[in-house]
Write a structure and sequence with these properties.
α1 (136-149) crosses α2 (163-174). A hairpin with a 5-residue loop joins β2 and β3. This protein folds into two domains: 16-190 and 298-380, Alpha/Beta hydrolase fold, catalytic domain (Rossmann fold, 3-Layer(aba) Sandwich); 196-292, Orthogonal Bundle (Rna Polymerase Sigma Factor, Chain: A). The strands form four sheets. It has an eight-stranded mixed beta sheet, sandwiched between helices. Strands 2-3 form a two-stranded antiparallel ribbon. A two-stranded parallel ribbon has the order 6-7. It has ten helices and 14 strands. The chain has 383 residues and is of the alpha/beta class.
């Protein structure tokens, strides 16, 4: 007689909101502009302990959201779970039987937090380009305000990949004493010219769409074609040559021979068009402009090298884990190694792992027991 292992019930996800900076001064951004009120959407998983020190903040990537794990009550059958559901939950890499996980949606997004599609209280119309330019630093400062609101005085850890990894590094330089550990995945201390170039192509494709109307499109036709092309360009950078070769090669889409036209003969063309269409249905074009620009502005090279050195009197040193992927050509491993070397020069306790994978930059979003084991072991090692 065999007994099947009992699987834990899936997490129940509930989106919450916190609004602050409601006074006349609002929130002062790095640019000097003021913004208010500010709302952050966020989700939590697990139980906050009595000491309020078992908290792990999960920072999402560029087009992600606060729905990192679990399912919303009443979802139709087959609804997709949170974007990191394989990592977050009972007994998983980030174990919600041990940790209280918080995932906020970033400032400037369109997934519940204040961004250019939000109503401007001064005009009672969407901000559009009246939304002030924000930075990764501004994003992290609003997350810190949320932690203060939740009564959290220290994070057990902060973890994120890609633009989420940038938020991790900003946490490290802005609030080092607030952290016990940090995990930066598939990220960089600053964008290369190549990364900035791809972001600029995406922005120009949106702004060239005749429906963009200098950002004032909310009452009419939206710049769907420009946004779709922007997503197509971005999606290519998230993959790898090997991944595309293996999945698509030069296979044709639902035909035996060329159309000798522009119908989209190849499977890769059909795939990219599908990705563009999906993105149009869920994301705001102006948010793409703001978030990509914030990531281009991001640069912590100098500040990472000035993080306070560990004190000999303090036996509990902050610990860092840096993870890269062999096929990530958007943020290659050499950039992760530069981060590791910068941390080591200031005598930080840092571990590094390069995972061999042919999936490209988005590999950290694909279930992989190696990544799960690394993160589980890292956080468990702090306990």
């Amino acid at each position: 007689m065999t007994t099947e292992a009992i699987q834990p019930a899936p997490l129940t996800a509930v989106k919450q909101h916190y609004t602050f900076a409601e006074g006349p001064e609002g929130l002062v951004l790095e640019s000097g502009a003021r913004l208010g009120p500010v709302t952050l959407a966020y989700e939590t998983y697990g139980t906050l302990n009595a000491a309020r020190d078992n908290v792990i903040l999960v920072a999402h990537a560029f087009s992600g959201d606060s729905h990192a794990a679990g399912y919303y009550p009443g979802d139709p059958e087959g609804e997709k779970p949170g974007w990191w559901d394989f990592m977050i939950g009972p007994g998983k890499g980030i174990d919600t039987d041990k940790f209280f996980v918080v995932c906020p949606n970033i400032l400037g997004s369109c997934m519940g937090s204040t961004g250019p599609s939000s109503l401007n209280p001064a005009t009672d119309a969407p901000y559009g380009l009246d939304f002030p330019m924000m930075t990764i630093g501004d994003i992290v400062s609003t997350q810190k305000t949320l932690m203060d609101h939740l009564g959290i005085r220290r994070l057990h850890g902060v973890v994120g990949g890609s633009v989420g990894g940038m938020q991790v590094l900003e946490w490290c330089v802005r609030y080092p004493q607030f952290l016990r550990s940090a995990v930066a995945i598939a990220t960089t201390m600053r964008h290369s010219a190549l990364a900035i170039a791809f972001n600029e192509i995406a922005r120009q494709s949106i702004m060239a769409d005749p429906n963009w109307n200098k950002g004032n499109y909310y009452g009419g036709s939206k710049p769907d074609m420009g946004l779709a092309v922007a997503r197509m360009v971005g999606h290519v950078t998230y993959l790898s040559d090997e991944a595309m070769r293996r999945k698509f090669g030069r296979k044709l889409q639902d035909k035996e021979t060329f159309s000798f036209g522009f119908d989209g003969d190849f499977q890769i063309e059909s795939y990219l068009r599908h990705q563009g269409t999906k993105f149009v249905n869920r994301f705001d074009a102006n948010s793409v402009l703001y978030i990509t620009k914030a990531s281009d502005y991001f640069d912590v090279v100098e500040r990472m090298g000035k993080i306070e050195r560990p004190s000999k009197k303090n036996s509990e040193k902050r610990k860092y884990l840096v993870i890269s992927y062999t096929s990530d050509w958007l943020y290659p491993t050499y950039q992760a190694k530069e981060l590791v070397q910068t941390l080591k020069r200031s005598d930080q306790d840092v571990s590094f792992c390069e995972i061999e994978a042919d999936c490209g930059h988005d590999a950290f979003l694909i279930p992989d027991e190696r990544l799960t084991t690394l993160i589980r072991g890292f956080f468990d090692g702090l306990s």
